[in-house]
Amino acid sequence: MRKAYQLGFSNVEDELVIDKLNVTGKLPNWIEGTLYRNGPGMFKAGNQHYRHWFDGLSMLHKFTFKNGGISYANKFLQCKAYHEAKENDKISYSEFATDPCYSLFDRVKEIFDPKITDSAKVNVARLGGKFIAMGEPSLQIEFDPETLRSLGVYTYDDKPKQHITTVHPHEVDEQVINLTTRFGRVSTYRFMSSSKRERPELIAHHKVKEPAYLHSFGLSPSYLILTEFPYVVNPLKIIFHAKPFIENYVWKPKRGTRIFIFDRKTGKLVKQFKTDPFFAFHHVNAFEKGTDLYFDIVSYPDPEIIQSFYLDRITSEEKKLPGGEFRRYHADLSGKKEITYRTLSDEAIELPRFDYNHYNMDSNYQFVYSVGVNKSGNSSFYDQIVKNDLKTGEAKIWYEENCFPGEPVFLPAPNRKSEDDGVNLSVVLDEKNGNSFLLILDSVSFTEIARAVIPQPILFGYHGNFYQNDQ
Ligand code: CO
């Protein structure tokens, strides 16, 4: 197996606290704050392997920029799935695509009381001043932003065992809005809104027989956008846990993709479109111009991308990952029934980011940063960072042989001269040196400014966010 995959899909043994990372290059002195990242820290329990990229047990990382230096710490998310895997030396909770090996007795018990993972591994968010590690099962874990220690469970909704949530909440006007799916004989998509003081409140909902797998949703100034791909599940299979979570879903392309538009104020379904079948994880941005609604999304012709993240498939290197097509959908809400799209880039992208704090729902937003697979490289996994200019249609690439960058988080420079004046932060696995580094890219030229070296590899991760000290 390629060394990068041995490193990136293994176990991190050490929880480190390093006051000052070795930095090459010159750090911009204006960066102050902390990048928190979430992702797998462990793909093996005893001699059992998790099967899928989305299965590994959560590890949190923090990179704090202070006084011209960067400190680093990492810690496993303290949760039952982690503790039991360590204690029993075996996989003990159901993850995205891996179940524990059951005895017949356990199998029966599992039907009535499934041990769904509480390893909230996919993203981090700050909700009402609390730092939360987020996973798709509705159990989220609050952590201490200083020590990364777990502080307890946070839930969006009651009966968390019968729910899943997206790990991409929107934050707007001091409200955090998220989309959950409640499984039942009739299932419900539920948009929840929470503010600092209140418990989450239901702001829109839609009943459905066979819910789809939804990883994100769109938000525009007036609307909630639910893009329902025809990758759907008989909800009883989730409730009775027939198979590992994602393997219960079925691709039914004949259904097409349905797009539901809800009014944010009234919660009413104002428009519904049906279009060709496609699948996506990530909505990017959405905005309105008069009665025209636009939303950007990284799409695939089918859910093959999920299959392609099984570890045996990545590490066999037989196929490249399917490329995410960056699309802009346009709907005229004044009456037309059609919804159309155009492709925004020739480059395939995934893990898209933009300057969310300043350009969310803004039709003038111009730059999107993401990862991709280099066309002339020899990798079957993400190995480059892409910057898309939506005005010119051009793309800039950061690529270095045998390096595997993760999601590039953008930070604007103070008093910037253009939208892209700032840096991107990306954790890069360095195959040659057998460790990882934090790459600091100049976002305008898309060239390296500095890198901070971590003395061990960081496994291939998912999402993270940067928080300034004074926010
Ligand atoms: Co995501």
Q: How would you sum up this structure, described in words?
A:
The chain has a single domain, classed as Methylamine Dehydrogenase, Chain H, CATH 2.130.10. 9% of the residues lie in helices and 44% in strands. It is mainly β and 471 residues long. Bound molecules: cobalt (II) ion (CO). Cobalt (II) ion binds next to strand 23. Cobalt (II) ion is lined by residues 167-168, 215, 281-282, 463.
Write out key terms for the chains shown:
binds cobalt (II) ion, five-stranded antiparallel β-sheet, six-stranded antiparallel β-sheet, 36 strands, 44% strand, mainly beta, globular
How would you briefly describe this protein structure?
The protein is mainly beta and 471 residues long. It is built from 7 helices and 36 strands.
